[in-house]
Each structure stands twice: as structure tokens, then as C-alpha cells.
Design a protein that fits this description.
Elements lengths: L7 H15 L3 H25 L5 H15 L2 E4 L4 H9 L15 E4 L3 H10 L1 H5 L6 H23 L16 H14 L1 H5 L5 H4 L4 H18 L3 H19 L2 H27 L1 H13 L10 H26 L1 H19 L4 H18 L3 H15 L9 H13 L10 H8 L14 E5 L7 E6 L4 E7 L15 E2 L4
Helix pairs in contact: 1-2, 1-3, 2-5, 5-7, 7-8, 7-11, 8-17, 11-17, 12-16, 13-14, 13-15, 17-19, 18-19, 19-20
């Protein structure tokens, strides 16, 4: 559905037509339309809190396209302990494991947020395939699950008038954190439309990319238990190859032998493709030696197999040539060691978060536009509230407060940047939808050293804490009234 949505009623009509075409059961049809209604009701607040999200139109279009492409059948699972345990143990594998079915089944519990999660997660099987490297499958799966978690958030944590985070509904904290941090660095358009991990690799600083692969590999091993044995096999191959590279002369002789054989095989394939009679004879000979269930259907299929083999041989020869070059040899050796580390070194999300903070801090330092600075304040507040995210955001917050005062986004409180931060740091803990509605009230009492800070939303006090005053700072305490934090 690649057109602009003028309003939600227009979209509901389009979705209704699709539901008729799909012939979904009435219960499913009603659940889909109810989901669309609730998204429309909550989306503005979802966008205000997170900042880096698609437009509502693009968000709804994505749902439409997912239903059209990946949801031939949707089945509702009754909520009971047995089903919940089963879904959790299978890591919510919503799509049927048989990818060759004409009608893959999407399973969901009978709630709008679970349906939205199921629909979005169905994209993963389409984007990830067995021909990809294990690293790429791991990265795309991690980001894909993170996207599904983030999309479901509009119904999971928002109800049209408030924001409340439900940690229990998040399948993977790691995937959620990875996805959010990537969108804050690269934007939602690039991250939401990934078809290759290379798109991330070329756009991320190398240290951040390396930690992304580490986190993704560790998650993928737990996500898909069948991968553990494959990982061990691949690790053994990498280690064996690296061991041989420690003896350059013998290794180069082996490469030369492999390259010569590849040339001979390539020459043979070229002859077959250029001479129809030879191709026919070879096809009959090869097919006669294959078991009945492995036979090649016809000569055209055999020709396609040869063309694919030719492309692979040309790629191999190119790789062998690179290895024969001394600089190429050393580069491959380094890359091989890095891959070994990916497969065997344990990691945790904190290393990825640390690399992200270096990039995010630069965004804060470079920000020079009012809207951009306000967005960064909201983003930092959101990062501060991500479940199981342990990032130390103090340094970011210490830079944002004075910058926001300089650009007249926040009203100054004192004559000291450090004191302003100590007093206003509570805005990053606030659950108020509109930070611009926050006020601050300050007071002092003899028995407390420092300033008592009270943060108020539009109706009541949200939090209170003590702000110690740095030496040399000055502030006028007006205990009788609240002061608006944000300029308007």
C-alpha cells in the first residue's frame, strides 16, 4: 500500500478490503480493525516520547504490507499457562517453521498488542535466509525482533493518555536496546528497511559495529538452539584456517593449488556452456549417477547450476588472488581472528551501550538547532527509562541542560551550569508525556544541607530530591511558587 494515508478512516477502509481478500475469520478481522483504531489513538504520544519513529502513515502502511505479504493465515491462541509457557520456550516463533508452505501461519494471543507484535515479527523470516553468513543472520534477527518489540510498544506502553512501561511483555531486552540505539544513531528509515547487515556496517563506526555483531551472536545462540552446533563447527574451521596461516609458505602453496584447480573447473564449465552437445552429454552422465530423489529435472536446470558454480568459482579465484598479495594475506588473517572472537568471546550489552554513548554524545555536542536539542532531551529521557538498560547518561545530561538554556529551550535556574543540571536532572526521570508541562519548586530547610527540589507535572508533584550547591554558585530561592522549566 504505497500511498499517503489521508486519515485513519481511509486506512481502515483499505485494511477492511484486504481482510475481505484474505478471508480472515470475523474474530481476526475485528481484532485487526481494533488494533488499527488503538494505534491511531496512541500514536501521537508514542511519537512524542520516542521522537525517532516513522510517521503514522508509514507505520500503518508497514502493517498493511506485512499483513498482505506474510499473513496468509492468522490463528488466535487461547491465553492459558500451557500456551504461555510454550510460546516463551519457543522464543515466540510466531511464523510457521516450514518456510515452504504456501500459507504460513501467524500465531497470536487475542490482544491487539500481541497481534501487532506477531504481524511485525513475521518480517524476519522474509529478511533472513540460510544463504547468509551466520553473523548477518544474527544481526538481522536481533534488529528484526527489536523492531517488533518497538512497534508493539505503541499499544503495550501507551493507552491514549499516559505512558507506562510493561517490562514483562518485552521478549528480549537486548534486541529492544539494540534496535532503539541503532535508530537513534542512524534513523528509523535505514534501520526499519534493512535487507543486508552491510547497510549497518558501512554506516556505523567500526567499534560500534563490532559490538553489535558480538551482542547479536550471543543473542542468536540463545534464540536458536540449533545454531550452537553449527557455530562450533564454523569456529573449528576458522581456527584451523588461522592455524595454517601461521606458516605462510605452506599456506600460499595450498592457495596456489586451490586457485589452479578453480581455474581448471572454470574452464571446463565455460566449455560446457559454449558447446550444447558437450553440455547435453555431461548432463546425462551426471544425472545417471544421481539417486532418483536427487536427479536434476532437465538440462535448463543443469545449465543454471553451472552458471551458479561459475559465479562461485570466479569469486573464489578473486579471493585467492587477494590472499596471494602480502597485504591481502595480513588483512584476511586479521579478519579471521576477529571472526573467531565473534564466535567464542562472551560479551554483554554494556559494551555496545558504551560505544553508542560515544556517538550519541557527539550528536549532543554538535546540536545547534532548537528542535534537534529538544528531540535529544526527549531521547535521553527515553533512554533513561529503557528496561534493563544500564547506560550512565549523566555526562549526556550535564551537556544537554546548559545547551538547552543557551538556546532558550529551558529557563535558567542559577548562574552555574553544574547547579542547573543538579536541580533539573529530574526531568530525565519524568513519565510526563509533555516535558514542556513540567515545573520546578525549590526550598531550603535548616536540617537539610542543599536545595530541596520538587518536580511537578501538570497536576501533581512527580518527584523530589536534594541538589547540593557547588562552590561559587548563586541562586534565589522562591519557596512560594513553582517555576516553568521549559520556555514557551
Amino acid at each position: 500500500m504505497h500511498k499517503d494515508i489521508l486519515n485513519s478512516s481511509e486506512f481502515s477502509e483499505e485494511m477492511g478490503n484486504l481482510i475481505d481478500i484474505k478471508k480472515f475469520k470475523p474474530q481476526i478481522a475485528n481484532l485487526i480493525l481494533s488494533m488499527v483504531y488503538k494505534i491511531d489513538d496512541s500514536y501521537d504520544n508514542y511519537k512524542k516520547i520516542k521522537r525517532v519513529v516513522p510517521t503514522k502513515g508509514n507505520f500503518l502502511n508497514n502493517i498493511y504490507d506485512d499483513v498482505k505479504s506474510y499473513c496468509s493465515v492468522i490463528d488466535i491462541i487461547k491465553i492459558n499457562n500451557e500456551n504461555q509457557i510454550k510460546m516463551k520456550s519457543e522464543r515466540l516463533r510466531i511464523k510457521s517453521p516450514d518456510k515452504y508452505l504456501n500459507n504460513p501461519v501467524i500465531y497470536t494471543f487475542p490482544t491487539e498488542k500481541d497481534l501487532l507484535y506477531a504481524i511485525t515479527k513475521a518480517e524476519i523470516d522474509n529478511n533472513v535466509n540460510a544463504e547468509m553468513s551466520l553473523e548477518e543472520r544474527a544481526v538481522l534477527t536481533t534488529v528484526g525482533i527489536g523492531k517488533a518489540i518497538s512497534r508493539a510498544e505503541v499499544l503495550r506502553d501507551f493507552n491514549g493518555w499516559s505512558w507506562s512501561i510493561d517490562k514483562s511483555e518485552i521478549e528480549s531486552s537486548e534486541c529492544n536496546i539494540v534496535y532503539i540505539l541503532l535508530t537513534y544513531v542512524l534513523g528509523d528509515v535505514l534501520v526499519d528497511n534493512l535487507r543486508s547487515a552491510e547497510d549497518l556496517k558501512i554506516n556505523l563506526p567500526e567499534p560500534l559495529w563490532n559490538e553489535l555483531v558480538n551482542v547479536s551472536m550471543q543473542f542468536y545462540k540463545s534464540f536458536d538452539k540449533m545454531q550452537n552446533e553449527k557455530i562450533l563447527d564454523i569456529l573449528a574451521v576458522y581456527k584451523n584456517e588461522y592455524l595454517k596461516m601461521r606458516y605462510p609458505y605452506e599456506y600460499q602453496q595450498e592457495i596456489l593449488t586451490k586457485k589452479n584447480k578453480a581455474f581448471v573447473d572454470l574452464q571446463h564449465i565455460n566449455e560446457l556452456l559454449q558447446q550444447p552437445n558437450k553440455l547435453k552429454n555431461e548432463f546425462m552422465l551426471v544425472n545417471s549417477k544421481l539417486p532418483s530423489d536427487k536427479k536434476i529435472f532437465d538440462i535448463r536446470n543443469y545449465q543454471k547450476l553451472l552458471i551458479n558454480s561459475k559465479a562461485n568459482l570466479e569469486k573464489q579465484i578473486n579471493e585467492y588472488s587477494k590472499i596471494q598479495d602480502p597485504m591481502g594475506f595480513e588483512k584476511m588473517k586479521e579478519e579471521l581472528m576477529l571472526k573467531i572472537k565473534y564466535y567464542e568471546v562472551s560479551t554483554n550489552i554494556s559494551k555496545f551501550e558504551k560505544q553508542f554513548l560515544e556517538v550519541f554524545e557527539k550528536q549532543v555536542i554538535d546540536a545547534s538547532d532548537k528542535k534537534e536539542i529538544l528531540d535529544l532531551i526527549y531521547q535521553t529521557r527515553y533512554l533513561n527509562n529503557i528496561p534493563n538498560c544500564k547506560m550512565k547518561l549523566n555526562r549526556i545530561q550535564e551537556k544537554l541542560i546548559p545547551k538547552a538554556i543557551e538556546y532558550e529551550i529551558i529557563n535558567p535556574i542559577s548562574n552555574n551550569d553544574d547547579l542547573d543540571y543538579r536541580i533539573l536532572r529530574g526531568i530525565f526521570d519524568s513519565k510526563e508525556l509533555n516535558l514542556e508541562d513540567l515545573s520546578v519548586k525549590l526550598k531550603t530547610v535548616p536540617e537539610v544541607e542543599g536545595i530541596i527540589v520538587e518536580i511537578y507535572n501538570s497536576t501533581e508533584m512527580e518527584s523530589t530530591y536534594i541538589a547540593n550547591t557547588p562552590e561559587g554558585s548563586e541562586i534565589e530561592i522562591k519557596t512560594s511558587r513553582k517555576t516553568k522549566i521549559f520556555s514557551k
